[in-house]
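Suppose you are handed a protein chain with no further information: no name, no annotation, nothing but its sequence. What can you learn? This example shows the usual starting point.
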Amino acid sequence: MWDTGNTAFMLIATSLVMLMTPGLAFFYGGLVGRKNVLSIMMQSFVSMGFTTVLWFICGYSMCFSGTMGAHTDLLGGIIGNFDMSFLHGVTVSTPSPLTPNIPLMVFVAYQMMFAIITPALITGAFTNRVRFPAYMLFLTLWLLFVYFPFVHMVWGGGLLANWGVQDFAGGIVVHAIAGFAALASVFYVGKRKASDSQPHSIPLVALGTGLLWFGWYGFNAGSQFKVDSVTALAFLNTDIAASFAAMMWLIMEWRASRKPKFLGLLTGAVAGLATITPAAGYVTTTSAVMIGIAAGLICYFAVQLKNKRGWDDALDVWGVHGVGGCLGVILLGVFADSAVNSAGVNGLILGNSSFFLLQVGVTLGAAIYGFGFTYVMLIVINKITPVKVEQSEEERGVDMSLHGEEAYL
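A reasonable first move is to predict its three-dimensional structure. Written in structure tokens, the prediction is:
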């Protein structure tokens, strides 16, 4: 009944995406000061546990139970129903909805890994400044009211899928909404007051980047849900875009500072990975080169704009993931080529201006919603429990102040 090759591949891809969250913890952990390493890493690791619980209770059902076409989802295609809460009906013999020759359990696990890492991305923006109880509420509400609806609308047969929006592996669903939620968080919590704000371990950042880059092959290639030519295309495009973006960022920073910066190379690679994500399985390798170059340039200038404006996005979540994700979705509207993937459509350069305009409009709407809902949500959370740490706690370091632990003795 099951295709063992496809099933094995998807289990490996699921494991790779799972590895990205510890990779993110190392990436972020190296970028913060010595007194705040454990706090930022814990915010990633706790998502692995808590998001799994929420996914089991209702998350999977809210994302993938019911479709707009069958009139079985809720709110006009915005969210799924609750028929599969607590994974009701998911048995060892239930087939996956997209690839019937692999078990549904594999699909549930793979999509769960996306749900785990997406809110963890946001934490880099407000490092050192948010109390843990408030973060747990943030994690819960953001998944329920931002991430789960967008998964359903784009990948679960909901509203945006019916409009014809395409997003191969999460430009809208992961990076755009998380990046603009990060910007809203920055505006709400304000600037850091303590001086412990410089990267304390670039080798940790390099380790995290390596794990993220490695895991991203499962993130993008696995989004084909089987092994075929599109799987190979998505895999290769992922590496091409990341490499060109890394080199472009290195060149730009080298030109600006007169020295080649390792941290710039690493940041550029992540920007390229984020930007190619929505387009990986829908564009040619030549287009992936162009997307990588654009990611290195535009995300670099977005970070410079952030610095100039004084936005304390501590780890450049908006500039890398928010801008990168939006850019990737828009460039998919430009470069999409149905010749490389029959499930896709042609983009602007092949004469399909309506698809390009759709991608632009939805990207703008997703960014506005991700920003607006997150800002209002933080106001509400603050009425329940304080969001911001006290200045004395920040100066002491949130590792000891909030968790009573130190990374380095």
